[in-house]
Amino acid sequence: MTRRSLLLAAAGAAGCGGNRARRLNVFNWSEYVAPETISNFEREFRVRVRYATYESAEEMLAKASTGNSGWDVVFPSNSYIQPMASAGLLARLDHKRLPNLAELEPFFQSPPWDASLSWSVPYMHSSTGIVYDASVSPPPVGWRDFLSERFRGRVTMLDDPNEVIGACLKQLGYSLNSCDPAQLAQARNLALEQKRHLRAYLNAEVREQLVAGDVLMAQLWATTAQIGIDARPSLTYVYPIEGFALYADCAVILRESDRVELAHEFINYLLRPQVSARIAAAMRTATPSAGARRLLPPSLRNNPTLYPPPETLARGEWFTALPPAGQRLRDRIWTEIKTA
Amino acid sequence: MKRALALYAVAAYAFLHAPLLILAAFSFNRSRYTVWTSFSLDWYRAAFRDHQLREGAWNSILIAVTATTISTAVGALFAYGLWKRRSRWLSASLYLSLITPEIVTGVSLLAFYQWIFQFWRLHLGMCTVVFAHVSFCIAYVVLVVAARLRGFDPGLEDAALDLGATEWGIFWHVVLPYLKPGILAAALLAFTVSIDDYVITSLVAGVDSQTLPMVIYAMARRGVNPVVNAVSSVIVFGLGAMILISERLRAS
Amino acid sequence: MNRVRAIALTPGAAVIVVLFLIPLAITCAYSALTRGAYFGLGPPWTADNYRRLADPLYGMVFLRSFALAAASTAICFLLGFPLAVFIARSGRRKNLYLHLVILPFWTSQLVRIYAWMFLLRETGLANGILQALGIIRAPLPLLYNDGAVLLGLVYAHLPFMVLPLYAALERLDPNLLEASADLGARPWTTLSRVMLPLAAPGIRAGAVLVFVPCLGAFLVPDLLGGGKSIMIGTVIQNQFTTARDWPFGAAMSLVVMVIVLVLLWVGAGRRGEDLL
Question: Does B230 reside within a domain?
Answer without folding.
Answer: no
